[in-house]
């Protein structure tokens, strides 16, 4: 495991995961675990993927630069002062990156993504929301959880176009969050039948072999205002061109 110094971990006392970008296209979710005895945080699950992806060896210098919204940019230098740049990966390489190659380039410019990432606030998050893998059939006024799985074997996996039953939790697959860049902004636009957009906030959370993104106040922000109740079903489709999840149909 890899540890953070106290000065870094102060800002992350309530955060369990963050995003690490290895270039301008590819990123990984990693978990952190507090160690009160050493007064620091340890990087746990997820870091090994970065090591394999970048083929990291000894004799390199790693620089983690904070961007925003629990997001970091990882820069790697060799001992000659050259930056190790990872080229863009195909989707097929996401699962197996052991053969991924990188190239060397002279240090050119600082990749600052601050303007590309909006600061988010935790004020609207529902702290009483309980995450569970079990289906809910009571259909009351509780806040349903939006979960995201990043591998097809997971029961939470669904295609881009899908039908959601109100009595079940609202699940998305990893392709939609990746296309919507939920990992960067921690929010996504959802359009109702009247064409009105609602911004839904998300938080990353480890789930099985991968990660899911949990939406907060889903009932308050979407189902109640649109009068969607139990025994109703909703057909959703994600539009990459409009960068939003669109509600196309509601029926019983």
From TrEMBL:
Gene Ontology terms: cellular component: nucleus
Chain segments carrying region Disordered: 112-141
Keyword Cytoplasm in record: no
Feature: compositional bias, Acidic residues: 118-127
An annotated Gene Ontology molecular function: DNA binding
Main location: nucleus
Keywords associated with the record: DNA-binding, Nucleus, Transcription, Transcription regulation
Location in the cell: Nucleus
DNA-binding listed as a keyword: yes
Protein's name according to its UniProt entry: DNA-binding pseudobarrel domain superfamily
Species: Helianthus annuus
């Amino acid at each position: 495991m890899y540890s953070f110094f106290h000065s870094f971990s102060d800002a992350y006392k309530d955060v369990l995961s963050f995003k690490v970008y290895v270039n301008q296209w590819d990123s990984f979710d990693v978990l952190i675990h507090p160690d009160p005895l050493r007064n620091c945080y340890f990087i746990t699950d997820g870091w090994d993927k970065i090591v394999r992806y970048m083929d990291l060896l000894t004799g390199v210098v790693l620089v983690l630069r904070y961007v925003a919204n629990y997001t970091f940019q990882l820069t790697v230098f060799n001992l000659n002062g050259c930056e190790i740049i990872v080229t863009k990966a195909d989707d097929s390489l996401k699962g197996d990156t052991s053969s991924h190659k990188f190239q060397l380039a002279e240090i050119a410019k600082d990749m600052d993504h601050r303007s590309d990432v909006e600061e988010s606030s935790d004020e609207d998050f529902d702290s009483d929301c309980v995450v569970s893998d079990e289906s809910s059939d009571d259909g009351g006024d509780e806040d349903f959880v939006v979960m995201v799985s990043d591998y097809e074997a997971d029961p939470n996996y669904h295609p881009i176009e899908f039908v959601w039953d109100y009595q079940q939790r609202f699940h998305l697959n990893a392709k939609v969050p990746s296309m919507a860049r939920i990992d960067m902004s921690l929010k996504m636009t959802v359009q109702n039948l009247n064409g009105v957009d609602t911004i839904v906030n998300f938080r990353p959370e480890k789930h099985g072999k991968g990660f899911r993104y949990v939406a907060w106040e889903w009932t308050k922000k979407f189902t109640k205002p649109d009068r969607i109740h139990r025994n109703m079903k909703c057909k959703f489709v994600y539009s990459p061109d409009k960068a939003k999840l669109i509600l196309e149909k509601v029926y019983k």
